[in-house]
Amino acid sequence: MKTRSAWLSTVIAVAAVVSLAAPAAAAEQSSAKQVPATNSAQDNSAVDRNKVKAELDSAMKIIEQHIGAKQEDLNKAVERLLGQPAESTPRLFDCFGDKTKDGDFRMLCIRVFQKMGVLPPAEFHQNLNRIMRDKKDRPFPRIDAAAMLLQDEKKLDPSTRKEIKQLGFTLYSEESAKDYVATRIFNRFPNDGEVEQFLVKAAKTESNQSRRDGLLHMLGKRKSNAVVVMVRGELKANNPERLFSKSRMYLALGDVGSQDAYNVLVTQLPRERDRTSHSQILMAIGVTKNPAAKDLLIGELKKPWQVNTWAAVEGLRFLGDPSVTPILEAELNRDVPAPSYKETVRRAISKINTGDDKPFW
User: What gap in Å lies between CA 265 and CA 296, rounded to an integer?
Assistant: First the structure.
């Protein structure tokens, strides 16, 4: 039996066929327009339309029966829908807006549309507003509708944007919807002070450790100084029952990247005895891109080799400074007991040369 994550993964996996199916369909339609209209051509066009209709009807039925459907059939159904965007879009939106349908089916319909990589057509905005405002509907469709409206910022008036933000605050109170609200709505308000304050409060009061870590991660990506304040308090308290895991605290400080965040990391580096946490500090120091990070990380490479020396290499990769390439190349001649270390060095050199300095968290 397929779980929610399984069928959602199906859509993501099959999304690659867009590049094959959609252009082919567009080419077919383009070439068809060049043929002079004759009675025979018109008859064939009617037959083609009926054939497309039948194929899409079949595809929608398979999607609706996603729990019992074979993976291969699901793939083909999604491919058909993605290959006929103009014809399938109204069907997918009708499915998404129908409260009598299975909740997973509705979400799957809107996921298929989103994989087309286009903004919601203007004629469907009214339906999206209706779904978002329907308090009797499930939380997930309301969140998805709000997220899709946020995608088209140019057509979104300030009052609706404010309404969506308030909806996020309200629906976050539902246990099952918390993570979904955070990723689908709050991430669309990157520089909003009210959302940041809400996330900080949630990070401090949330009962679930994993979710607290996730909120700290979000605040780090927002470069919120509140991360530095909270982490400092956690480290000073020296309480084994911390609000956040050590690894998440250090990585979030790297994402914040401020001088204060860098100072906390540097202070903790010699104090941290846990090998994993020590490694994460080194990587986070690189992510801060602080001017002093380069010399600190190079200094780590000059020390006797140890198991987590690779983290200094990764730190230099995230720093992204091409001037460290010769130093890393010299590391390839170093005699170390771990062959994987040199692979890490080669990857770091390659990433620096291509300008890829994004951390993997």
Answer: 12
